[in-house]
Amino acid sequence: MASKDKTRKRLRMQFLPWGRLVAESLWKGSGRLLFYRAEATMKRMAVYVGNGRVLTRTANGFKLFVDARDVSIAPHLILDGVWEEHTEAVLRTLVRPGMTIVEIGANLGYFTLLMAQRAGSAGAVHAFECDPALAQLARDNLEVNGLSNVANLHEMAVSDREGSMRFFTAERHRGGGTLVGGLAQIPELTAAERREIEVRSITLDAFAATLSRPIDLIKIDAEGAEPAILHGGRDVFSRRAPLTVVMEFCPAFFTQAGSDPEARLAELEEWGFRLYRIDERKRKASPVTRSALLNVAYSELVLRRP
Q: CA–CA separation, 80 vs 159, rounded Å?
């Protein structure tokens, strides 16, 4: 007679927003144990909540408000639940409990949430986003995920001077806002969708002087403003102390912003940083040379100074 020790029988299935809950029975010896097994499904859930917003849930479990009009980032978050998986994978290896983190260019707060969760209550994330609409999304996303106690959202730009600056929003491509006038990004993002606004600005050095703890990690996604950020944070970047920087590097953006990309990389190396490039396929950072970075259109860099 066949043993019933590991005989399972599916009884019923209940679908949930994030997947499904399957009730099964397991014969164990002479008795039957009823248990529930969670199964992930490819089905995603998103709800239009009004005022141009969609509420969805990311693959890593965060509730997220996104701009329903956006055609650059929102579709990926709504349907796939992820954005730049290679960057997320590397950040998971870099961010540790108790870290002090500065994020420049938080957008709607996708990476802000991840870093705040991993830094924990003993850490702090200072996120900067100068686009008012995106800043409000980021604030709300921190609040609904219970992470406002770890991350602070600063509605201002980080650049090479304090005061106010012109910022050019991108109404349909919400990841394309920039401080660099006339920046050529993608063909679909035209001048017609740009709107010029005035935003407050601060330098990284000035902000760092207000902190009681040294910065452990800086994430920069600033669409061409990277040279100005580096210039305004020379004290932070040149200080001989451990520091990790995760930064987008596009040589053409540096050139359009009036900066020499090779000179900036050389400067970073002079400040003691080792250069790494995130491999999108392998989802890890590998050592890279300055010349290799200058010969590709775009890289996600990890700069490490032990």
A: 33
By residue range, what is the domain housing residue 12? 8-40
Q: Are residues 203 and 294 in the same domain?
A: yes
Helix ranges (H only) for 85-193 are 85-94, 110-119, 132-144
How confident is the model at residue 215, as a pLDDT?
98
Please list the helix, strand and coil fractions of the chain in percent, rounded to the nearest 5, in that order.
Answer: 25, 35, 40
pLDDT at 77: 96
Residue 254, domain member (yes or no) = yes
216, 242 contact by CB (below 8 A)? yes
Mean pLDDT (the chain) is 88
Q: Does any domain span residue 142?
A: yes
Q: Are 108 and 73 in contact (CB under 8 A)?
A: yes
DSSP single-letter state for residue 226: H
Clarify whether residues 106 and 218 are in a common domain.
yes
Q: In the structure, what pLDDT confidence band is assigned to residue 43 with cuts at 50, 70 and 90?
A: low
pLDDT value at residue 190:
85
> Which candidate, 237, 233, 202, places its Cα nearest to that of 128?
202
Q: Collect contacts of 290-296 with beta carbons under 8 A, ≥24 apart.
A: 290/262, 290/265, 290/266, 293/249, 293/251, 293/265, 294/251, 294/261, 294/262, 294/265
- pLDDT (tens digit, 9 = 90+) per residue, 221-264? 999 999 999 999 999 999 999 999 999 999 999 999 999 999 99
Cα–Cα distance measured from residue 176 to residue 190, given in angstroms and rounded to the nearest whole number = 10
pLDDT, tens only, 163-196: 999 999 988 888 888 999 888 887 788 888 888 9
pTM of structure: 0.85
Q: How many independent structural domains does the chain possess?
A: 2
Q: Are both 222 and 88 inside the same structural domain?
A: yes
Rounded distance between C-alpha atoms, residue 137 and residue 159, angstroms: 22
